[in-house]
Here is the input.
Amino acid sequence: FADIVAKVVKEAMEERPGDVLVFLPGEREIMYCWIALHNMGVGDGRVPRNLQSWARKLIKESDPSSSMVQVSPLYGTLDQREQEEVIKPPAPGWRKVILASNIAESSITVPGIKIVVDTGLRKVKT
Here is the structure.
């Protein structure tokens, strides 16, 4: 799943300018998608703070110096400072990919977003 989403994001970025907002069902899917993008060479290599130790083993070594793309997770348990950092515009010449949970879907407005990828998946409590 994460590999497919990451491929769609990468292809969209190659076809269109602007930043990307990706809606995923939850934190786990966000982290898997971050790993998939990183392993495809998309992103600056800054590992999300909450990435579990088992997930770190899935990260392939790469040289992010040529990728001028900031990939940032956005979900409910991030503290306010981290959320504000994600919403800030990227540095000049850089692009941004925000991997957001569906909780943020109705309450997020980010300047510069030109591409939206919605997986259409939601977490359902049973």
